Amino acid sequence: MPRSVATPPGPKGRFLSGNLREFQENPLAFLERIARTYGDVVSLRLGPVKIWALNHPDLIEQVLVDQNRKFTKHFALRRAKPTLGEGLLTSEGDFWRRQRKLAQPAFHKDRIASYASIMVDYTERMLATWNSGETRDIQHEMMKTTLQIVAKCLFDADVEGDANDVSEAMETITHSFNDRVRSVVRTPIWLPTRSNVRYLKAKRRIDEVVLRIVAERRKSTENHGDLLSMLIQARDDDNGGMTDRQLRDEAVTLFLAGHETTANTLAWAWLLLSRHPDAEAKLHEELDAVLGDRPPTIEDLPKLKYTENVVTETLRYYPTVWLLGREAIEPCELGGYRLPRGHTVWMSQWVVHRDPRFFAEPDRFFPDRWADDLAKKSPRYAYFPFGGGPRICIGDSFAKMEAVLMLATIARKFRLRLVPGATVAMLPSITLRADGGIPMTIYQHEYANDSLVS
Ligand code: HEM
User: Fold this and answer.
1) pLDDT: is 135 or 196 the higher one?
2) Looking at ligand 1, which atom is closest to the CA of residue 398?
3) Is 321 in the pocket of ligand 1 (CB under 6 A)?
4) Which of 296, 311, 312, 308 is nearest to 409 (CA)?
5) 302 CB-contact burial (10 Å; exposed 0-12 / middle 13-18 / buried 19+)
6) Closest Cα to atom 30, ligand 1: which residue?
7) Looking at residue 1, what is its pLDDT?
8) Atom of ligand 1 nearest to the CA of 403
9) Average pLDDT, whole number, for the chain?
């Protein structure tokens, strides 16, 4: 039999649930284990859903780039539609292409440069509320600030007053995503279960804030020159402008996609730096040399190489988007096998970023591995924290700049240490975040050395 009609190898599953139980117990360990055991194409099943896990960069490139037109987003993201509607993350086809074209200029290099001062400014506002010696949940702190930044940069909106509320609502929604994505039997959203009631309340709260921003802007005669203005002014040949509903979908998508990912990355970076004082010392050396006593600006970015490498390595070590999924809308060849129509493929950043074929000592946090152009020497999709191909993250440059500027602004003033005895568990939901937050003690920069706890 030619290899192309065979099924790829994979773990044996239960009669009805397939590999669901092992996956639910520990998705990261499960995906890593099957990759190391069965190779670059692994076949598995979650209940009725048949999946191939692709564990080689070249196969990932096939799906995201070369054969991208044969795939749509997979079932998990479709389950996000009640929340995100037809926003950039979830829409498909011509509608998605139009929306992407409309939004793209807001993420252009020159445009993004103008966001740098907002990023530093909002970070400094957060720092003004911090006191040396106190303990804070760093994940929550980062969430609040990145939410304010995305709202200000893209919608010229101040959500400071709503930030706590909105971050909590976003959190509820993420938990609900998590349950929906993982469960095989889903309770309909209209059933008044506890979790549905919480979810609907959270969704209402976010809609309220977003629709308020849209309504205020429609009334305003001023041109704010931001993404929201561009979207409101956009007209297409036969449909006219965007409805409030469409604007709401794009705004909620950008709020959600544009704040939690960067916040998680920063939170993981603080945890890693607190556990690696050598890396932290090197970071401070660079910041002292480049910035001295002043906050960073856009002009400093090319000189903040080590800071950038800390962000790059954090996204390798704890990729906040840890799994991408696609569904085949037509059959195709992958790795010598024939993928049937309707099959799902998974590509996990967690698995590939920890593959010793592409990263020496993959379990070591080592920002300097990126110093010598590692990215250019490795296969293109050995490292793909932002995905790739036409659906690549629209906010990748925004996020990288934001993470470097926030890291530099904070590290210039404070060192952060994990509270002694605290354990940090990973929660791989739609994003990879810390379960229950990351409690850290904040020390004013000059006193931090006295209190090293790792
Ligand atoms: C460290 C931070 C971030 C990471 C790791 C990240 C990662 C990703 C990934 C992997 C995708 C592709 C999903 C797929 O192919 O299925 C994506 C898509 C997207 N991201 Fe990000 N992202 C980050 C920050 C941001 C920011 C700051 C924004 C906006 C301000 C943003 C907005 C979006 C949007 C709208 C999409 C959908 C794009 C499309 O399909 O056209 N992301 N992101």
Assistant:
1) 135
2) 27
3) yes
4) 296
5) exposed
6) 258
7) 42
8) 1
9) 90
